[in-house]
C-alpha cells in the first residue's frame, strides 16, 4: 500500500509466510497490528499535520510464497558469487538483480514485521529461501574485513515476529523460530526484536486467540513507535 506525500515517509515491511488462507489468524493479527502502528505513528509523529496515516507510513508487503519470489538455488548462488567477484556477464547480472532488489527493499524498512507458522519447530522453507535471497554479505550487512567481523550497516530498527502454532509453544530449547529470525535480522540492523506467539489454534477458540494476540501486538506497536520517536529526537 503506497500513497504520495510531501513529507518523508518511514516504511513498514511485512514479510508474510502465511499461505493456507489470507484470512488466517496470524494474517489478521498482522493486519490489525500494522493498522494500529500506522495510527499510533501518525498520532505521535505528525501532530495532526497529515490527514491520513497511510501518507506517513508506506506499507510494503512481501509474500514469500509468490511464484514471482526470487529463488536461491544452486544456479543463482553461482551467478551471485560471480557478480560479487567482479563478473559483468549479462546472465550473472540478470540473476543477481532480484537478489539485490530484495536486499535493498529490506534495508529501506524502518519497521520489519514477519508472520510465520511454526513448522517442525522452525520456519517454512519459503521464508528460509527469502532470507537466503535477501540476507547477503555486502548487500545486507558488512562482510568481515580488515576492520572487523561481519556487522550491520545500521542498528536499532524493530523486528516484530508474529508466529502461530496449533498447539502450545515448545520449550525454549526446542523453539527455533524466534531465536533464528531475531539473530539473522539483527545482523542486518533489525536488532530490537519482539514476538507475538499465537498458540493453541487447534485446541482453543480461534477468536479468543486472535483477540489476545491483537492486544499483545498493539502494545508492541505502541512501544516501538515511542522508541522510534526518541531515536529520531536524539539524532536531530
Automatic annotation (TrEMBL):
Positions of the Flavodoxin-like fold domain: 58-217
Alphabetized Pfam families for the sequence: Flavodoxin_2
Signal peptide: none
Protein name per the record: Flavodoxin-like fold domain-containing protein
Provenance organism: Phytophthora kernoviae
